[in-house]
Amino acid sequence: MVKVLIVDDSASVRMFLQELLAADPGIEVIGTAGDGDEAVGAVERLNPDVITMDIYMPRMNGLIATRRIMETHPVPIVVVSGDLDAEEVASTFRALEAGAVTALPRPQGPGHPDHEREARSFVQTVKLMAEVRVVKRWPQRDKPGSFPPSPRQAMVPVRPKAVAIGASTGGPLVIQTILAGLSGDFPVPILIVQHMAMGFIKGFAEWLSLTSALPVHIAGNGERLLPGHAYVAPDGFHMLVTDDGTTIELKGTPPENGLRPSVSALFRSVTQAFGAQAVGVLLTGMGSDGARELKRLKEAGAVTIVQDRESSVIHGMPGEALKLEAATHTLPPDRIVTALTNLAMEK
């Protein structure tokens, strides 16, 4: 039984979320809180498995409450946004920096045509996040001048023409770490698929821009790939690259692995366009999206990197890739920065 604490300053919203969650026989709502201060106390008393956290609340807001909880009594926190305006989305990503594991929009109410679908997805995600018993943090390490060679990769890597990154749950903070660690003269375009609830991608790209020396864009159909630019797949479209490797294509073709955008679609396209002159990176996240296609990238001669278990919030996607022997390197985020820099900047 998954024990949930609901935190929201609106009594009607607390009741709505409680009804949604309690309808699942695998969930017990063990308490509610009307502000962050109440939430911090409730966590200590009730020991929940997962928390749903509002951002805008009186006395202590959700961002500060998240920081306090992660410092004193770490629990998986799901940020629930009732309004996807720019300010709330920005605050949501700051909560992810503070240790929240994911963010979701609040489901539409009964009577809305999307209510059942959104409610089902919301409940499922809350249950899954309860399995993240400890919010993973990676230690600060001295960044070495090179990254360790893999015994399975005897060839000297070719200087890449593109980097493709795929991530799901826990990915935003890792992607931020990677982009923030790359210098402004990084000479290779970076293509990013981050699984995220609808409505958050624009805020995600803006948040990445705050700490990245590289320009970060929401990818546009027909956009030319430029060196040293990062392109984030938009809501609802697969992000591909033309066969000549010069231009982004956005496709509304059916979801892959239940997802659109899909990491699998991006990796397959990058393999076709660049082959050995690519780097594939598969980060934290549930499921297996991108794992088989990462193996194809490796078989084409590309360098393939997966995030290590210790630094992953959920090791599903990288773990599936490791089962397939799809990775030439298994690294934490800071070492991924080093690897990409060494590969791309190598003379």
Give a quick precis of the structure.
The chain is an alpha/beta fold and 347 residues long. It contains eleven helices and 14 strands.
Notes on the structure:
With 347 residues, the protein is of the alpha/beta class. Helix content is 36%, strand content 18%. It has eleven helices and 14 strands. The chain has helices at 11-22, 36-46, 62-72, 86-98, 115-129, 171-181, 201-211, 263-274, 291-299, 316-323, 333-345, and strands at residues 2-7, 27-33, 50-53, 77-81, 102-105, 162-167, 190-194, 216-218, 230-232, 238-241, 248-251, 278-282, 303-307, 329-331. A seven-stranded parallel sheet has the order 8-9-7-6-12-13-14, with helices on both faces. α9 (291-299) links the parallel β12 and β13 (303-307). The longest helix has 15 residues, at 115-129. The protein is elongated and about 55 Å long. The termini are far apart. 49% of the residues are buried. Mean pLDDT is 91; it is low at 136-146 and 149-156.
Overall pLDDT metric: 91
Distance linking N and C termini = 56 Å
Structural class: alpha/beta
Question: How many strands appear in the DSSP assignment?
Answer: 14
Task: Please provide the ordered H/E string of secondary-structure elements.
Answer: EHEHEHEHEHEHEHEEEEHEHEHEH
Low-confidence sequence ranges: 136-146, 149-156
Beta-strand residue fraction: 15-25%
Major sheet strand order: 8-9-7-6-12-13-14
Radius of gyration: 20 Å
Percentage of residues in helical conformation: 25-40%
Taking the sheet with the most strands, its summary is: 7 strands, parallel
